[in-house]
């Protein structure tokens, strides 16, 4: 894609996920996360069906004019106590089913975001984050949070700790396809989450990230 073209210029739209999108999302996950797919750590149809049943407005897909799903994002609402409580992906997502979704919570949790490998660095991930931010504002949630895999940490683990690696990414000394992308989208790094997800790339480490809603109105 030309640098001057945005996915929107080519007719890509972001909309809420529909039941008929589920097989396409499963296929997208296999393409997007081959390391995780190898061990079955990607969405299964019954989990995506659960997301749609529990919190339909929090599920998104990026779709090309021909109907191909080139990106997806899954979210739920949570309330952490304390607000930066350590957690694993399985704990925070109720083993991927979102049955712990709390409509009275204050935080939109980004359980997953994926873009097709052929369409990375084109702005599709940014469009999905825009949709999430719009939802946070619409629902008057205090923030959006997530655990982002430290994707390239395995290549640096012999030289530094996960905390040191994240620090170098934040300083721009090291590029990480996940954390760098999240920082570029307005998130701040809070802390390291160990044992977050069984993943050979990150050695199970993730970064706790947070985006505060600039339009949040305190609830009384």
Description:
The chain has 7 helices and 7 strands; from the N terminus they run βαααββαβαβααββ. Helix content is 27%, strand content 22%. β2 (59-63) and β3 (69-78) form a beta hairpin. It folds into 2 domains: 1-80 and 89-141, Aminopeptidase (3-Layer(aba) Sandwich), CATH 3.40.630.30; 152-212, no CATH class. It has a 7-stranded mixed beta sheet with strand order 1-2-3-4-5-7-6. With 220 residues, it is of the alpha+beta class.
What's the layout of helices and strands?
Layout lengths: L12 E4 L5 H11 L1 H4 L7 H10 L4 E5 L5 E10 L10 H4 L14 E9 L8 H15 L4 E7 L12 H9 L8 H6 L3 E6 L12 E7 L8
Parallel strand pairs: 4-5
Antiparallel strand pairs: 1-2, 2-3, 3-4, 5-7, 6-7
């Amino acid at each position: 894609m030309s640098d001057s073209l945005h996915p929107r210029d080519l007719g890509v739209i972001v909309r809420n996920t529909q039941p008929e999108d589920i097989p396409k999302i499963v296929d997208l996950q296999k393409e997007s996360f081959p390391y995780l797919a190898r061990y079955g750590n990607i969405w299964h149809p019954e989990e995506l069906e659960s997301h749609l049943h529990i919190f339909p407005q929090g599920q998104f897909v990026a779709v090309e004019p021909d109907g191909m799903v080139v990106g997806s994002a899954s979210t739920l609402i949570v309330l952490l106590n304390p607000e930066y409580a350590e957690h694993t992906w399985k704990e925070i997502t109720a083993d991927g089913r979102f049955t712990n979704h709390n409509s009275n919570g204050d935080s939109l949790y980004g359980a997953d975001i994926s873009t097709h490998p052929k369409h990375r660095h084109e702005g599709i991930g940014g469009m999905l984050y825009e949709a999430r931010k719009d939802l946070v504002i619409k629902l008057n949630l205090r923030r959006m949070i997530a655990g982002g895999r430290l994707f390239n940490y395995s290549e640096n683990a012999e030289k530094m700790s996960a905390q040191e690696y994240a620090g170098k990414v934040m300083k721009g000394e090291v590029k990480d396809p996940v954390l760098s992308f999240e920082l570029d989208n307005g998130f701040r790094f809070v802390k390291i989450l160990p044992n977050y997800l069984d993943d050979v790339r990150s050695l199970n480490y993730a970064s706790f990230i947070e985006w505060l809603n600039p339009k949040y109105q305190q609830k009384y």
